[in-house]
Amino acid sequence: MKKQQLQVMLRLQDEINSVVNTEWRGQNFPWYRAIWVESAELLDHYGWKWWKKQSPEMDQVKLELVDIWHFGLSLELQHGAPEVVAERMLGELEATTARAGDFREHLEAFTLNTLASRSFDLVGFAQLMADVELDFAELYRRYVGKNVLNRFRQDNGYKDGSYVKTWQGREDNEHLAELAGSLDTAAADYGEQLYLALESRYQSTAVA
To answer: What pLDDT was estimated at residue 207?
Structure first.
């Protein structure tokens, strides 16, 4: 199951990157820099200021981790096809035993490794997941949802500014969350089902 889900996520990432730029592999985009910036945003949601009371915003923390995963997958895809990359990533993940610890210190180590190597620190990311109790099944569900939403926005005018995120009185991510809850995440075509459901609801709004 995990191997299949990895392959699905890598394929979806390849597709959304190709929507943005068909020659994305040859562009050498600084994905590592995006991870670094997202890590800073992530730390803000978790809390680090000792001079004021702060509590981790766990849902936002997990959302930021999913955004980092998008960039990490893009880095991994620079080195091969989704099926080949999934095999290697799976082996690395299965060899990793991560236990919850100091999230802030682990995030700093992950960021330093990312900047030093300009690559994706998969083991460090697995540690961050363990720190915030984000299991692989939830990562998959959240990733596919965000990926589908990103692709849907691109297909409906996000790039030229014509897409409006709010319809039927709610933001598109709320529609997405509702629709995702009605589908089987174990289905091989879960992403396609979710996209079609979102598209159907959006089109019915346009007609109305």
So the answer is: 47
pTM equals 0.83
Q: Do 127 and 145 sit in the same domain of this protein?
A: no
Where in the sequence is the domain holding 157, given as residue range(s)? 139-208
- Per the rule left: phi > 0, alpha: psi between -120 and 50, beta: everything else, 60 is alpha
**What distances in angstroms separate CA 63 from CA 14, 39, 45, 60, one per listed residue?**
20, 11, 10, 5
Query: 3-class SS at 48?
Result: coil
For residue 146, the SS3 value is helix
State the sign of the Cα–Cα–Cα–Cα dihedral 15, 16, 19, 23: negative
Residues 64 and 111 reside in one and the same domain: yes
Structure tokens at 133: 């109790």
- Are the CB atoms for 204 and 196 separated by under 8 Å? no
